[in-house]
Amino acid sequence: MKDMLKFDYYKNLRDIEVFKTVCVYGITLKWCTGQDIAPEKIYFDSVPLAEFGFEVKEMK
Question: What are the two backbone dihedrals, phi and then psi, of residue 22, each rounded to the nearest 5 degrees?
Answer without folding.
Answer: -60, 145
